[in-house]
Amino acid sequence: MSQERKHQQGCREVLPGVFQIRLPLPGKKPGPVNAYLFKGVNISLLDTGTFQTTANLRAALHELQCDFADIHQVVITHGHVDHYGAANRIIRQKDSKALVGVHPADKRRIETGAEASRKTYHRFISLMGVPLGYRLGIRLMSRVFRSMAEDCRVHFALNDGDKIQLGDYTATVIATPGHSKGSVCLYLEKENVLFSGDHILGHITPNAFVMLERDEELPRRSSQAEYYASVAKIENLSPALIFPAHGPRVDDIMGIAAGYRRSFLVRQQRILAIVAAGPKTVYQIVCGVFPELGGKRIVLDVFLAVSEVYTHLQILCSDGRVRMERERNRLFFQFQPSAR
Ligand SMILES: [Zn+2]
């Protein structure tokens, strides 16, 4: 492993010819974005940070003797604004030759800014029993998020198993849905090193966000189930070193994955205990699971908590431990004592 060399703009060489660039992101969690520049025959940028940190990205690249126009491809780990926000700026640069690649399941997010319509989101959070004030707040918040990225054309698909040249390295695309539908990791097989996007993080358990469809009020896919299947996929690879898109590098995938599973079970037990006391909406469960909700990020935190509780309930419903019922425009979740 190469000696890690630090540069002024928060860049460091993490493998020979591969540079991590830390880009600011508002809020404490998940913390600054790590983009990675692969120099060499096929100059590649893995993730871009937000639109607002385009200048930081440009300055960091200059320090590494690279310009937007030198980049051959921009590879996006998933369709969240902090990962693709500056991609359009790069491809619109004069003399740019860069092509943008992403998994097909997140293409729509990057090209249009959302995977489902605003109406779909609004209907979903309304079914969850979220009070009107927060629903309006969540609408406003989604506008703020959209301002953190420019819509960007996608040129090529990253499908599971594809081989792709990143700088002087050969990487295999590993589809790891869960955090988003189209999340991918990039695996350097020869080096046994993984670039994990937000799929594996060392300092927090990644969110398995609710996966809404374009015009359906409830998701078809089970984010938590897909997320843990994708974690197992990475455990099977057993990479010696993981470079995530936020936070420090990870060198103990088994320990990290075990920690994720423990926090999953703790959360699941808490939800079961709350619904055992009587039927509840998702928002009522959220208030029980997260009694400390409050402060500046309250609207974002309410949305994250609703998404998390609902995705847990999807699993509990499919296991038969909880039953979902609809009363007009609200869903209620009820404990199912085992039948026998
Ligand atoms: Zn993300």
Summarize the structure.
This protein is α/β, with parallel strands linked by helices and 340 residues long. It has helices at 54-63, 81-84, 87-92, 107-112, 118-127, 132-146, 223-237, 253-276, 282-289, 298-318; strands spanning 11-15, 18-23, 33-38, 44-46, 73-75, 99-102, 156-157, 163-166, 169-175, 184-188, 193-197, 241-244, 322-327, 330-335.
Instruction: Based on Cα principal axes, name the global outline.
Output: globular
CATH homologous superfamily of the domain at 11-114 and 149-258? Ribonuclease Z/Hydroxyacylglutathione hydrolase-like
CATH topology-level fold name of the domain at 11-114 and 149-258: Metallo-beta-lactamase, Chain A
End-to-end Cα distance: 57 Å
> In the CATH classification, which architecture of the domain at 11-114 and 149-258 applies?
4-Layer Sandwich
Largest sheet data? 7 strands, mixed
Q: Strands of the biggest beta sheet: in what spatial order?
A: 1-2-3-4-5-6-7
Helix content: 25-40%
Strand content bin: 15-25%
Could you spell the SSE succession in H and E letters?
EEEEHEHHEHHHEEEEEHEHHHEE
DSSP strand count: 14
Q: How many helices does DSSP assign? A: 10
Instruction: Find the structural class using helix and strand composition.
Output: alpha/beta
Instruction: From the alpha carbons, calculate the radius of gyration and give it in angstroms.
Output: 20 Å
